[in-house]
Amino acid sequence: MPNSTIRDNKRIEKVAAIIAALFLWQLIAMFVGNQLLLVTPMVVINTLLELLFTSSFWSAVAFSFFRIVFGFLMALFLGIVLATVAGRFHLTEIMLQPYISVVKATPVASFIILCLIWLNAQNLSVFIAFLMVLPIVYTNVLQGIKSTDEKLLEMATVFEVSWWRRLHYIYIPHLKPFLLSACSVSIGLSWKAGIAAEVIGIPEGSIGEMLYEAKVYLSSGDLFAWTVVIVVISIMFEKIFIRSLKAFFARKERV
Predict the structure, then answer these.
(1) pTM of the predicted model, to two decimals?
(2) Mind listing the pLDDT tens digit for each residue in 94-116?
(3) Alpha helix locations (H) across 33-54?
(4) Helices (H), 167-219
């Protein structure tokens, strides 16, 4: 079966799954019969259309997007750097292990409340997104470095291959699945944690503030609409970033 046909079938399957989910949502909302508890998809769509034509919508999206993405990118960079150093020097791995374990085990809500003491609400989502993503990137990249073929490394040592060429031809191709997996998991987590931080910290002009106001005023339509916005932005960013990362690795493989 041609690749184009397979891709088309997958798209049809995804669209069918979305339509089925919306239909089920409509049936449940009709069965509940209470717009305060569960609104219909049409109400959410109408609310979204109204929000799209307001300046506060786009400013809130920009506010949260840039902060959460900045936190994710910082964690990605530092996680790769720390994992590289830890893979090179075992002592570094031992020293970092308690901190990584604590961050992985501590609930997000605990970090958010603690960080509200240290940081202002405007930058809270940056730090929380950073904190949630760092252990995932660090652990995955370190695992990739440790699982690199020892025979390849021995051969590189025998032939006195420079560190840069080892990185380019041995480590980067090998780390591809580990890094892609880390990014795929952590992007969604960064948005969950970042928005949770905004809902608790309530920084002015953020998506979190909009969600909090929807809860206070019992506006289920707004609550669901903003939730849809978060999901869509998170998925779109993940797909664009993962695709860009794959393109980067493809260019490296061709060189």
Answers:
(1) 0.88
(2) 999 999 999 888 888 888 888 88
(3) 41-52
(4) 172-201, 207-216
* Secondary-structure percent of the chain, ordered helix, strand, coil, rounded to 5: 85, 0, 15
**Confidence label for 46 from pLDDT (cuts 50, 70 and 90):** very high
Q: Which residues of 44-63 are buried (b: 16+ CB within 10 A; e: fewer)?
A: beebbeebeeeeebeebbeb
d(CA 136, CA 189): 10
Tokens for 97? Answer: 């292990």
Q: Is the Cα dihedral 104, 144, 125, 60 positive or negative?
A: negative
Distance separating alpha carbons of residues 183 and 189, to the nearest angstrom: 10
Contact criterion met (CB below 8 Å) for 178 and 143: yes
Question: Each residue of 152-199: pLDDT tens digit?
Answer: 767 767 766 666 676 667 777 778 889 999 999 999 999 999 999 999
Structure tokens given for 197:
């931080």
Spatial distance between the Cα atoms of 136 and 133, rounded to a whole number of angstroms:
5
